[in-house]
Structures are given as structure tokens and as C-alpha cells.
Write a structure and sequence with these properties.
Helix 2 (66-75) runs antiparallel to helix 3 (83-101), helix 3 packs across helix 5 and helix 7 crosses helix 11 (316-328). The protein has helices spanning 40-53, 66-75, 83-101, 111-122, 134-153, 179-191, 195-204, 210-214, 264-274, 294-307, 316-328, 333-340, 345-352, 357-376, and strands spanning 8-10, 16-24, 30-37, 221-222, 227-230, 233-240, 243-249, 258-261. Helices cover 46% and strands 12% of the residues. The chain folds into 3 domains: 8-53, no CATH class; 66-153, Orthogonal Bundle (DNA polymerase, domain 1); 179-359, Orthogonal Bundle (hpI Integrase, Chain A). The protein has 384 residues and is an alpha+beta fold. A hairpin with a 5-residue loop joins strand 2 and strand 3.
């Protein structure tokens, strides 16, 4: 698919046409060169070569290193992304990419060299560094591609297509809690409800992320209407030099800012706890000065699960359980996606919805009972 600014278009005869500045006259008038092909990718590659031959890219500059280029690219995002996102970019760049590529001249960057460098980043030769998993390797490759795209935009290199084999993804998602485990957890919270214990139900029955639970204030609950607004999240980010800090920011994505109905039993518990605390009081910490950070709350969750005789799972498994329970109850994926605050329904299906034997058996029975009923009908004759 042609992109804006590439000077590639599809002609009426079905062929692709690429245009580039071949030369300029003494008066400065542009002389255009053209390339043609039946396949877009073929025209794109030829066009890149023709542009390079015509001096479109400043390939002779040798004083700029990859480190200098990457730092400029990183700085260009400081005010364009969230503080946590910028910190993650900086961490990935300095921990993984720069130790291998920092001193490499930008002018010498080629696909084959960068692909070998990525393999070295993914599978270090020294024993001091562990091989990267699928997620970290994917992030490194994505960042390297973006830096190269930025360099091509500045005409420092020609556009590149990097192809690197990534490690196989390992599913680390815990299985959702069973109905019996959910019941024990609910009974445990009901026996002595506190805001920190109710946080378990906010994950289990509303599907909140742990950072969203930590970011709740009492003013986010509308106990008259029975709704909860997700307005912020709390996370710990890297500041460089081994230091970290806790930040409160807007939710993960635009769709993560959402309003969720509160189940009746949970609403009753919340009304009993509301008291006379101010709207600006943090729900978990109980004060107005600072929220509870996710790292501390994870320790509380671990202790609560043990006390409730529920197997140890990560807090995010409660969110997975909520998604699976909703689907099993017949909730449509679009509504579930909105409740979870996902950007699209595909994320809901791919990451959070777990199928179990009961659901599989129910679906198989439904499908084959339908087929049996169809076979039992009289097939209408063409003469009727």
C-alpha cells in the first residue's frame, strides 16, 4: 500500500508508478525520473535505489553515530508521549540497543548489519546477559525500525526493511480462577471488607488493571448511580541510573478512560465504607497525600489470596477471570472490550478470553444439535 510522501501511485492501467527528482536545470527546474512495475514493493525498492543514485540521501556524512541519532530521536518524543512511555523508551534504548550500536556510524547502517546486530541483542554471546524474550525482542526491533525510519526521514540513510526472527512467545497468563475460587475470594472479602480487600473484587468483578485500582479516589465512585469512572493510573517508572519513581497519569489508552456499572453486592459494601471521607481521598491508601503504588499492593494481594485459600496468581489474572466469566455468561465481545478499556475487540479475544472444557462442550452440543435438527427437516423438492 502506497504511503503519503513516497511519490508512488497506482495508474489506471493497473501498474505502479514511482517518481523521483532526477536532476535540476541551471535555472533550478526539476527534472523528474520515473520507474514502473506491476508490484508496489518492486517499484518501492527501485525508487529507493534511484533516489540514492540521484543524491537524495546524505549518505556521505560520517560524523554522526547511531547513539547521537538515537538520542535525538528519543528527545523528539519527550513531549509527545506519556512520562511512563518515554521512560520505557529510554530504558529499552540504553539497556539493549546502545551497548551494541552506540559507536556505529549512521552512514554505514545496512539491513544485513542491523539484522546481525539485532540477533546479538536478542541472544548475547556473554554469559552476563540473558537472552531476550519475545516481548523485549519485539520492542527492541520496533524501536530500531523507528529510529531507522527517522534517519531516512532526515535523508541520512535510505529506507530499510528489517526482517529478524524473534524468540517464540511463551504464554505466561495464569489460568482464570475457578468458580469455587471466585466464591472463596468473595466470601473472604465480605467477611471483613476494607478498601484494600475490595480492590480484589474491583479486578475480579470489574476487570480493572492494578494500576487503575491504585489510582482510584473516592470521588471516582458515584454510589447513587452505581457507577465507577476510571480517570487515572499509578505506575513506577525508571529515571535512569538505577533510580525509579511513582507517577500518576492518565489511563493506558484513550478507551481506558471509561465508566463501569458496579454490581449490586459490591455497591452495598462500598456504601458502608464511604463514610465522610473527601472525594480526593485515595481509595486504597485512605489519605489525600499519595496513592498506594502497585508494587506494594501486589504484596497485599499475595497475602489476601493466601488467607482466602486461593492459589497464588498475579493480580492481572483477576482481570483475565473477569473477561472469561463475562464471555461465558453471554456478554458480547464489543461490550466486554469497552468494559476492559481495550482499543479494539481483537485484543480482548487474543489476550484475555480463556476457553474452558465446559464452554467448549456447550458450544459443540449447540453446533451439532443444530445440524441434527437441520438434517431432520424435509428437504423441499424443486418441483414444489
Amino acid at each position: 500500500m502506497a504511503r503519503r510522501g513516497e511519490n508512488i501511485r497506482k495508474r489506471k492501467d493497473g501498474r505502479w508508478e514511482g517518481r523521483y527528482i532526477k536532476a535540476r536545470t541551471s535555472e533550478g527546474k526539476v527534472q523528474w525520473g520515473y520507474v514502473y512495475g506491476t508490484v508496489y514493493a518492486e517499484v518501492k525498492q527501485v525508487l529507493i535505489r534511484k533516489k540514492a543514485e540521484a543524491g537524495f540521501y546524505n549518505l556521505k556524512r560520517t560524523d554522526l553515530t547511531f547513539e547521537a541519532l538515537a538520542e535525538v530521536w528519543l528527545h523528539s518524543h519527550r513531549n509527545a508521549v506519556k512520562e511512563s512511555t518515554y521512560a520505557h523508551y529510554s530504558y529499552t534504548l540504553h539497556k539493549y540497543l546502545l551497548p551494541v550500536l552506540s559507536k556505529v556510524p549512521v552512514a554505514s547502517l545496512e539491513e544485513s548489519f542491523l539484522e546481525r546486530a539485532m540477533q546479538q541483542i536478542i541472544t548475547p554471546t556473554d554469559a552476563a546477559h540473558k537472552p531476550l524474550g519475545n516481548s523485549s525482542a519485539r520492542e527492541c526491533l520496533s524501536m530500531l525500525r523507528r529510529i531507522c525510519k527517522y534517519a531516512a526521514h532526515l535523508r541520512l540513510i535510505r529506507p530499510m526493511e528489517l526482517e529478524v526472527a524473534l524468540p517464540k512467545a511463551i504464554d505466561k497468563i495464569s489460568a482464570p480462577l475457578s468458580p469455587a475460587e471466585q466464591q472463596r475470594l468473595h466470601q473472604y472479602v465480605q467477611a471483613n471488607p476494607t478498601p484494600r480487600k475490595i480492590g480484589l473484587l474491583l479486578g475480579l468483578e470489574l476487570g480493572l488493571r492494578i494500576g487503575e485500582i491504585c489510582g482510584l479516589q473516592w470521588g471516582d465512585f458515584d454510589l447513587k448511580l452505581g457507577t465507577l469512572e476510571i480517570n487515572r493510573t499509578v505506575c513506577r517508572i525508571s529515571c535512569g541510573n538505577g533510580h525509579t519513581k511513582v507517577v500518576t497519569q492518565t489511563p493506558k489508552t484513550r478507551t481506558s478512560r471509561r465508566e463501569i456499572p458496579i454490581p449490586k453486592q459490591l455497591l452495598i459494601m462500598l456504601k458502608k465504607l464511604r463514610g465522610k471521607v473527601s472525594d480526593s481521598t485515595w481509595f486504597l491508601s485512605g489519605n489525600e497525600s499519595k496513592p498506594t503504588e502497585p508494587r506494594c499492593y501486589r504484596k497485599s494481594v499475595k497475602a489476601y489470596l493466601k488467607q482466602a485459600t486461593v492459589r497464588q496468581v498475579r493480580p492481572h489474572a483477576l482481570r483475565h477471570t473477569f473477561a472469561t466469566t463475562c464471555l461465558q455468561a453471554g456478554c458480547d465481545v464489543k461490550t466486554l472490550s469497552e468494559l476492559l478499556g481495550h482499543a479494539n475487540a481483537n485484543i480482548t479475544l487474543q489476550r484475555y478470553v480463556h476457553s474452558d472444557l465446559t464452554r467448549k462442550r456447550r458450544e459443540m452440543n449447540r453446533i451439532f444439535s443444530h445440524q441434527v435438527s437441520m438434517r431432520g427437516r424435509k428437504t423441499p423438492s424443486l418441483m414444489e
